[in-house]
Amino acid sequence: MLLVLLLAAFPPEAARQIVGGALSDGVAYARLEELSDTIGPRLSGSPGAEAAVRWALQKFQQDGLAARLEPVKVPHWVRGEERGEILPQPGIVGHSLFLAALGGSVGGDVTGEVIEARSLREVAALGAAARGKIVFFNHTMGTEGGYGQFVELRTHGPTEAGKVGAAGVLLRSLATASLRTPHTGMTAYDDGAPRVPAAAVTTEDAALIHRLLARGPVRVHFTLGSRWLPDADSANVVADVRGREKPDEVVLLGAHLDSWDLAEGANDDGAGVATVMEAGRLIAGLKIPPRRTVRIVLFMNEENGLAGGKGYAAAHAGELSRHVAAMEADSGAAKPTGIVVHSGGEGAALLKPWLTPLASLGLADPIDGETGGADLGPLAPSSVPFAGVSVDGTHYFDIHHSPADTFDKIDPEALAKDAAAFAVLAYALAEMPQTLSRPPPAERKPHSNTKPSQAR
Questions:
Q1: What is the DSSP letter of 55?
Q2: Catalytic positions, written as ranges
Q3: Which residues are within 8 A (CB) of 395 and not within 5 positions of it... i.e. 6 or more apart?
Q4: How far from each other are the two terminal CA atoms of the chain, in whole angstroms?
């Protein structure tokens, strides 16, 4: 009898409204199209980012959620001009390079001989041999390894190259596919270390440079107009569906509203924004709200600073002990593949009876494991349990941080299933009588480990 009661725990009417609405209404897809096509790129500090904040606030209010802006100061980096070429020399006619400044790179005009390295250790070993040269970081992502294995080249490669006297850095884009599209992403300079201009080149151009180096010396010229401006005023957009019995207990659904500046950011993370907004809309539309408050947070500045995630944790420090669960949608819009729970005990077993509405999607068997998100990292020291919806990451890095991250890549059926999964998971965590046990306090792993794994 107990098992029957548990299996029936999710109210049937709520299940029909949430899953049926997500799969048939088409709101998430239409909303993502609007965000992507009418606002476009949303790098922190840009007019697009601020337009997105106003847009999201209005949409939440239209959906009946109690919405507000929570101010944050965000870094403001701008790309400027960028161009590059392999210079003509005996045996080489010369080639144009397709490149993009790494986020946070200083600007500059660099000409020099190219020297290849495949790891941070290797560039450190170059020593004086790298002085005045352009360090070219080559790697095998997409054939022999994944994003997590090579992202340190982007994050720390330029500062390590600067330490050995290099004049600049070119990085083979961290990508699993390319039609000569460069993939940007954040780099970080160590305090006190020389700051050299750094850019990602397309995988095709990287392969060309590697082949030419096998023939002899290669000289490159590139120019970056990137620069830092003073920090800008911005905001997280926060919207609540107030709980009927325990409104002070919060289930948080997050996504990041900012994107890189090369494209619309439809997959990263417009899809996450549309997913969690749809979850909020569907839950707000129920006749009987869940037991606890469901809070949607659209974080600003995930891509190049985490100011939104840090700002939320600081602003809500006094109530994080009452955040009973948090999840983040930041893995793209491919089909959902599973539910993961990170708590202090067997959270999956506790949650499983509440996921029967997702049985038709193959998502009714959660597992215990690592999950979370970059913006959730600041919540980890407060022992907030994390839950998440895993998605198919096979093609995520084909367009990640590139000019190809546009709305036409989005599969509406997969996006609808993502929204259904997040909405059911959020409602279950907000409605079930018992909460997840809290894990030991911990620091989150680096941002690169929160993205989907490669199914290769």
A1: H
A2: 302
A3: 176, 177, 334
A4: 44
Cα 55 from Cα 425, distance rounded (Å) = 26
| Tokens read off for 190 | 């160590």
* This prediction's pTM: 0.95
What's the per-residue H, E or C state across 131-160? CCCEEEECCCECCCECHHHHHHHHHHHHHH
Cα–Cα distances in angstroms (integers) from residue 128 to residues 74, 124, 161, 209, in the given order: 38, 10, 11, 22
d(CA 28, CA 32): 6
- Residue 359 is encoded by which pair of tokens? 């049985």
220: CB partners within 8 A, 6+ apart: 84, 85, 86, 87, 97, 110, 111, 112, 114, 134, 170, 209
Q: What is the pLDDT along the chain (456 residues), one digit of tens a residue?
A: 334 334 448 999 999 999 999 999 999 999 999 999 999 999 999 999 999 999 999 999 999 999 999 999 999 999 999 999 999 999 899 999 999 999 999 999 999 999 999 999 999 999 999 999 999 999 999 888 899 999 999 999 999 999 999 999 999 999 999 999 999 999 999 999 999 999 999 999 999 999 999 999 999 999 999 999 999 999 999 999 999 999 999 999 999 999 999 999 999 999 999 999 999 999 999 999 999 999 999 999 999 999 999 999 999 999 999 999 999 999 999 999 999 999 999 999 999 999 999 999 999 999 999 999 999 999 999 999 999 999 999 999 999 999 999 999 999 999 999 999 999 999 999 999 999 999 998 754 444 434 664 433
Distance, in Å, from the CA atom of 344 to the CA atom of 112, rounded to the nearest integer, reads: 54
Tokens standing for 298?
A: 């659209």
Single-letter amino acid, residue 206: A
